[in-house]
Amino acid sequence: MTDASDNRSFPLQEFLGFTIVKGDGTGTASLDLDDRHHNPNGVAHGSVAFALMDTAMGAAAVSVIAEDHTCATIEMHTRFHRPAVDGALTARATVLTAGSRVVQLECKTTDDDGQLVASSTGSFAVLRPRPG
Q1: What domains are defined for the chain?
Q2: ∠ CA 2-87-33 to the nearest 5 degrees?
Q3: Would you tell me how many other CB atoms lie within 10 Å of the CB of residue 63?
């Protein structure tokens, strides 16, 4: 895997404070939970795990498409398995199939103890560069 820090960061990444690593058909997004990630019940808001999985799957998708192409989420099916309060969350995505127009992926988010917090499957559109 290579660190994706050579890519542009984006405001949500900076606000949530996560890192992104992409490999050959894989992607990982991780962060250390703190108060800004909590919902009113004192546990990590579901959107945090969702954002990590969406980003990890995007990194995995980008790793298998042409360098001058980009991708965008078409759909995600997400399941939440257990709450997370503190420690690290890590989303690990894997490409299932990569076509010329759509990449299908799966992702699992775990806590420090390796417990499954959330999981997702998703489809990402492959976007070709616009003629310029």
Answers
A1: 2-127 (3.10.129.10)
A2: 80
A3: 20
